[in-house]
């Protein structure tokens, strides 16, 4: 689609938002603006409600997500499901997206340039989904959304009327079991944001 680069993406985001979900999804499916598309099977767009109170933002698709085209369907997805249950969210309450839509090779972290290229899609999705709470799943989601590291773990900030909080990426629960209790504590101290 040849998105514009640079810091001012607001006009492009506005245009995509006004064009609606179908147009945005088609634009993502057709996009080859960064090298990630070459190695990806399916761009991964979103799952969940189109009118969520809570929007989870992860990093990038993994192997299972790349095959299914659905975010958080692999092992990390099971951990996210457990988190969502612990948060007492119903299916209509939330949506899940990623900072970048195409799978990085060998599950490496997306590069800054890749995150930047995909950012108009991310910001258009946020605008269209219009959540009350954004939960950033790890540092890459924070870097993509904030363009830098600005948040402390579990300490919410309000921006444009949206509460934003950073907690651990669900994959951290797989490899560091001590993170499970830490994650529960971060969730417990922020429950008032979505309850
Ligand atoms: S990761 Fe984003 S910018 Fe890169 S090709 Fe996929 S949709 Fe386009």
What Rg, in angstroms, do the CA atoms define? 16 Å
Residue share in helix:
40-55%
Write down the overall geometry. Answer: globular
Low-confidence stretches: none
What labels would you give this structure?
195 residues, Uracil-DNA Glycosylase, subunit E, 6 strands, binds iron/sulfur cluster, globular, alpha/beta
Overview of the structural elements:
There is one protein chain. By secondary structure, this protein is of the alpha/beta class. It has one domain (10-193): Uracil-DNA glycosylase-like domain (Uracil-DNA Glycosylase, subunit E), CATH 3.40.470.10. It contains nine helices and six strands; from the N terminus they run αααββααβαβαββαα. It has helices spanning 10-19, 21-30, 36-39, 63-68, 75-86, 112-129, 139-146, 171-175, 178-188, and strands at residues 47-48, 54-58, 94-98, 133-137, 157-159, 162-167. The chain has a six-stranded mixed β-sheet with strand order 1-3-2-4-6-5, sandwiched between helices. The longest helix has 18 residues, at 112-129. It is globular and about 40 Å long. It starts with 9 loop residues before the first helix and ends in a 7-residue tail after the last helix. The relative contact order is 0.17. The model has no long low-confidence stretch (mean pLDDT 95). Iron/sulfur cluster binds at residues 28, 31-34, 36-37, 43, 100-102, 114, 117-118.
